[in-house]
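lol ok so funny story. i was supposed to be doing the assay writeup but got distracted and ended up predicting the structure for this chain instead. priorities right. anyway since i did it might as well share w the group, maybe its usefull for someone
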Amino acid sequence: MKEIKIIKANDISSILEKKEKEIMEIVANAYVEHKYGISSLPHSIFLRFPENKRNRIIGLPAYLGGEYNVAGMKWISSFPANTERNIERASAVLLMNELDTGHVKAILESSIISAKRTAGSAAIAAKLLHSNKNEDTIGFVGCGRINEEMYRFMRVAFPALNKIIIYDLSVERAKEFLEVVKLIGEIKTEIVNSVSEVLAAAQLTIFATTAGEPYVFDIAECNEKSTILNISLRDFDPEVVLKCDNVVDDLDHVCRENTSIHLTANKTGNIGFVRCGIADVIKNKQPGRIGGKPVMFSPFGLGVLDLALGKYVLAKADRNGIGTVMENFLP
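and the output, tada:
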């Protein structure tokens, strides 16, 4: 086989539109297969630029066995200044390989897959970890693409949701975020002026920012019923992390690259402040929360999730004749 299939963004969007429940199931199963089944997940590769430390391109190679039996790599860039140019911060491709020959069989646009698997993992965690299963108010810190996707998934995970509290350093971005939200569905909204106001108004809060170092040094507004989804990973000072009941996706992966978990481990000299991985909660080997502390979920973002969702997209595309086949691509 010398040809490969290319699947573009608009086709992937159409395949995954309104598939939040299915994506959450795929993500949950991938977490379990990774933890208790067969997988190979090397550390992500970070390509950085000496002249601009905010920019990076990340390679996430992975193999996931079991029902998925898929291998490949996501190659995703993050250039935060893109938002000032009115273009997407992140761009990505997903390479998928044949397991019998190792040949690349498909190239998928992957910023959409990446955003949806990220939101799916957060929604799974929120359902399992949050104390109020009928939550009606959620806070959003950061008004970029990821939190737009988070909102779609939270509507599914928490059907009682009727109000969101929003904060972003840019008021204009916050207003633009509201315009997107209104297109998705009617809901009460409030833009506030600080992180502390979000935490005071919402017991379930999602942090999805481009912060490169901690700026949240206190969460006095939180209590034992609060849940923080630490999606952007670097927002919280170690002292805040130590005040929380910490759940991660994969401790070996998240405890690096100066994440809040990594900084806390460096400060304390141990990793005992992390209670468990999310797969343990999915499999009922650990409770969602232990009481007395806010819960913080910190997912590094695992390549096995991209591959699991990529396989779903590719199967749908093959079944429906979607995508462009490039013949004689391989030598």
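DSSP finds eleven helices and 16 strands in the chain. Residues 1 and 101 are 10 Å apart (CA to CA).
back to the writeup now i swear
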